[in-house]
Each structure stands twice: as structure tokens, then as C-alpha cells.
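Researcher: Re-running this chain for the archive, since the previous output was lost when a drive failed. Same request as before.
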Amino acid sequence: MAWHEWLAAMQDSGSTYGELVWRLRLPRALAAWAVGSLLAISGCLMQVLLRNPLADPYVLGVSGGAAFVSLLGMAFGVAVNFLPWLALLGALISVLMVFGLARGTGPWSGTRLLLTGVVTASGWAALISLVLSLSPDNSLRGMLFWLMGDLSYATLPVWSLIVLAASFILTLGLARSLNVLAMGETTARLLGEPTRHLLWLIYLLASVLTATAVSIAGSVGFVGLIVPHLMRLLVGSDHRILIPAAMLFGGLFLVMSDTLARTLLSPQQLPVGVITALLGVPLFLLLLNRARLKGI
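Model: Regenerated C-alpha cells:
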């Protein structure tokens, strides 16, 4: 849109340009920003939880459960308005499964949690493949777009903004504990942190953030992996600064990616997950090479 068209939209929301901006462009941009922010914060939490820089919001199978239940709903013709709730239901089932299996009867183990999450994600992937193979051809395109991450029909429910705001405030309150925990569980325990409760709180919080993002736009990859790494290079590892920076840049990154998805092959639109992968892979390799040159 040209500048005079934007001005016309601002002056008259009922005009053609106003309808385009207020009913299509602005809700989609806000949804993209919210999803990017949710995934970026979740990525920061997951990397502290597993003490693994390669951890991302999808590593523990939360998105797999959300995707499976949502695709099942699509296959049975459930209305689009109910898909976010199906995604949240699937994510909740996955969280409870991983939580129960990883907890067991012994002490907390990050390795046990990671292995349980990876196996659970593999199980969800198998069920997703089964649903896709049995689904009719006329619904496969929509299913595949949703799996790759798609904002074409995304809306921004009020409850998702509440989740984002509440999680951001809670995460900032945990920033000092996150800084201590990043130095190691033993160090955190010696400094008086209730590590067991803290680790489960981080896991549940990251899962809620991921489930909310998946319920809005499907599985958008690389945002939760790339953004925390990039922000650590720019602002450092102090989570009191890292969390706000990651939230802001994660939202901006996904808004820019969605703009490319809409315009790159216009009038055809691409799933935004394709753009984040195309941008994320070379960027991540660049970050890895930078770390290698520094001897990290």
C-alpha cells in the first residue's frame, strides 16, 4: 500500500483501505508479533531449563500434541474458530504426559525430561503422519500449511495477550533465579534456590507459552531457537535484559517474516514457517561459526 492509501485508511476505517488495514493487516501483524514474542520467551526458558543452547520451544513435544489434536479436528470438519482450543487441549495432554513420565519416582533429571520429550514428540509425529495419510485430498493443503506455520487466518484472542503479559511479568520476576540456574543446578541449590520447584515452574511456563503460540499460528520454527542466541550476543546473558529484548525482537522478526511470506511470491502466499526456516538456518550457522571462531 502507498502512503496516501495508509493515510486514507487512518482517516476512514470504513473505506476500502480502512477495511484492509483494520480488519486484515493489523490483526495479522499483531498476531505475528504476539506469536514471535511467545516463542522467543519460551526459547529463553527452554535453554535455561535444559541448559542446552540448541533447545527450542518444540523440543519437548508440546507442539506435536497441539498439532495432532488440531489436525484431527480439521479431518472431522471442526470449525476454524475452535482450532485454537483444540491446539491448547493437545498441548495440555502432551505437557501432562511428559510431566508424568519424566517425573517418575526418582529425583529431577533434565536428561530424563529431554529424552521423554523427544520420544513423546516422535510419537506425536507418527500420529500426525497417520492423520495426514488418511485425510481427504481437499483438506491436505490447509493441514500442511498449518503444520508449517501459517498466519493467513490468524486472529489475536484477548486471552493470548493476557497469557503473554502475565508470562512476561512472571518471567521478569524469575530473572535472578534464571541467571543463577544458568550457572548449574548445583550452584543454584547452594545459593538457596528451590531448584526442583523452579525447574518445573519454568517447564510449565514455557509449555503454556508454546501452546498459546501454536494455537494461533501452528508450528512456526526457528524463532525460539535463533532469537535468544542473537539477543545474547547483543545484550548479554542477564535475563533481566535478555527477556524483554527477546520478546521485542521475536515479535519484530516474525512480523517481518510474515510480510515476506505475503509479498515474496505475491499474489500467492507462503506459510510463514517456511520463511523463518529460510532465514533461521543460515543465521544459526553464522552464529555457530562465530562461536567456533571465539573458541566457544
